[in-house]
Amino acid sequence: MARQAPFHRDAFHVFTAIQTRWSDNDVYGHLNNTVHYQLFDTVLTGWLIRKGLLKPTGSDFVTLVVETGCSFFAELSFPQTLDAGLRVDRLGRTSITYGFALFADGDTAAAQGHLTHVMVERTTRKPRVLPDVWIKTLKELQPGADLQSAAREPSRALPPASTETATLGS
Length: 170
Fold this sequence. Notes:
Blueprint: E1 14-19, H1 33-50, E2 61-72, E3 81-91, E4 95-103, E5 111-121, H2 132-138, H3 147-152, E6 167-168
Parallel strand pairs: 1-6
Antiparallel strand pairs: 1-3, 2-5, 3-4, 4-5
């Protein structure tokens, strides 16, 4: 199988600034490979909470990770502030596949990955159909999304530059 090429920054329109931490480095002086997955999860969970979709302890459903993957192209380390790109690669009936990229310097991803969530009932763990509000909001993350119409909704407004920026970690 051919190695996937790194994403360009233009493949994303929603970004979160995230600070690496001293404890993220391993003995080799770069981010341990598990940290990339933690960053992806932090960026996604923060976005879902800010959009009012995720209520970790107060809903009748949960989203379970059923698949993840990551490709590494350049070393990252502390201290760096990264731009984490977030998008929806696939929106299904009961599942969502998210795409991520971590950018340090420049427009080429240093690492990129994916994560698939399946929405299930909290108690039975049986899959459930994604609520309409989830589908509508997640469409903001799809490549080619109409950001101007998304920006017209006050509760889901994006900054004028077509990027959402928040700082997480430290």
